[in-house]
Amino acid sequence: MELLRVVRRRSVVSEAIYILLNIGLAAAILILTIATGTPWAAIVLVLLSKWRVFAVRPRFWFAHVEANTVDIIVSIGVVILIYLAGQAATGSGTLVQIMLAVLYGAWLLLLKPRTRRSYVAVQAAVAVFIGSFALESLSFDWPSSFVVIALWVIGYSCARHVLVSHSDSEIRFLSLVWGFIVAEIGWVSYHWTIAYSLPFAGLKLPQATLLLLGISFLAERTYSSYMKHQTIRANDIVLPALLVIGVIFILMTLFDSASIGGSV
After folding, report:
1. Staple 124 to which of 14, 56, 158, 165, CB 3.0 to 4.6 Å?
2. pTM, whole model, 2 decimals?
3. What is the per-residue pLDDT for 4?
4. Pair (142, 57) in one structural domain
């Protein structure tokens, strides 16, 4: 009985330390970004926080990097958005930065540790949204090759994240294909960059982010239908397809937009 109490006490202490460390990381990237006025110090901190990826034999490094790429995409994306919110010419910049840090803490504590298939799909969707949002918002005057490669990494990593949860035998191939599709969309969006102004946030939501999120959702629903029934059932994908097409149509025709890098 005494042993059980000791084990339980250690478990509670470990959980408390885990929570405090994650809250501390979210607070640290917020403070570093605001204090330095650049995202680089916070990005370095995020990468240093991944030291456990390399705390294994070198032959396992690549596999561990692949497994952690979705979290790295979200973490660096949040840092960039915090930085961009601070650069916006609005009085609510600091509030938006704090909100982003709080959401990042929620990612670390509530969503990232989940392993159920539905949560894994949401994790990948968050990475697509945050990663492409940050990249498209920051890279409007960067070389197109860098943007295309970065979006390929996002597409590949998020597809792999979902496919691993299904134990598919063609994980690498399908992830490469999806990364190529995302990269192609990224190349087109680089030459036709449109964004929607977010009220009070001082940020612009790229149209490409909404498009990538929509087609990723539709692809996941299609793939899940095939894995469940060994065929793609129309009943499983009709509503998601109509939802995605409808949202994209409304955004492209009814909402005002501005190019990233220009005036809102």
Report:
1. 158
2. 0.89
3. 44
4. no
